[in-house]
Amino acid sequence: MALALALAIARGETAPTAADLGWSVLAGVVGGIGITALYRGLAVGRMGIVAPVTGVIAALIPVTAGIVLEGLPQPLVLVGIVLAVLAVVLVSRVADDERSGPSGLSLALIAGVAIGLFSVFAAQLSDGHAFGPLVVIRGAEALLIVVAVIVTRSAWRPAGRLVPAIAAVGVLDMVGNGAFILAVQAGALAVAAVLSSLYPVTTVVLATIFLRERVTQTHAVGIALAVAAIACIAAGST
Q: Which run of H or of E encompasses 89?
């Protein structure tokens, strides 16, 4: 919230309008629900189900909304969108131990719908307002989490050694959300949504570099499709 406020001031953003405040609160609520459901699903369910289901739904909802609200993009862009959705499915697949127990499908569905709606709501912000509304979004998410902690009496104090990493995650997440909002304001929701949904590619690549994780054949195909999707969308958008 502090960084978003500083960037809003640095960019000379005016105070958010009443409509922007409303969309920001809605985005904050569904965003908080989505990320909580995703992490809970990954913790108690099967990652091989939770990750791809969440990723695909979170991509399809804003893409569909963008097409309905803004019309069909160019044919080459449509090809890129299809390739990107396939890439999300393949790259999001993770090793699954096939253990018995809950699959986490219900949580994945909740997470996918909520994160997808976050993208749609964030896309409604008026031009020139990006980081100011993010202050409100983060405030709504924080309030939601505080209420959830109080109601469920969950533990919330992280280990001190994890605080720098948690802060870094918060900064990166905020920058990503801000970039998405600016991208939507500069272009089409469907294009911005599908390109941002390719974030699992970055996760796989970084895990390979820093954690020495093996890139499976499925991941390799997904990464190749992601590159092709980006090329198609870029070519079709010029």
A: helix 75-92
Please state, in angstroms and rounded to a whole number, the distance separating the CA atoms of residues 34 and 24. 15
Tally: H helices and E strands in the chain: 10, 0
Q: Which residue in the block uniquely carries the two structure tokens 């990750």?
A: 51
Q: How many Å apart are CA 7 and CA 222, to the nearest integer?
A: 35
Q: How many CA atoms lie within 13 A of 174 on its CB side?
A: 24
Q: Where are the domains of the chain?
A: 2-237
Q: State how far the Cα of 141 lies from the Cα of 203, in Å rounded to an integer.
A: 24
Q: What is the DSSP secondary-structure string of 23-40?
A: HHHHHHHHHHHHHHHHHH
pLDDT per residue over 9-31, tens digit each?
999 999 889 999 999 999 999 99
Q: Which residue shows structure tokens 């958010």?
A: 16
Q: Under a CB-based contact definition with an 8 Å cutoff, are residues 27 and 177 in contact?
A: no
Angle at CA of residue 20, ends 129 and 144, nearest 5°:
110
Which residue type sits at 76? L
How far apart CA 173 and CA 141 sit, in angstroms, is: 13
Question: Comparing 194 with 110, which gets the higher pLDDT?
Answer: 110
Say how many Å lie between the first and final Cα of the chain, rounded.
Answer: 35
To the nearest 10 degrees (0 to 180), the angle between helices 105-122 and 163-186 is: 50
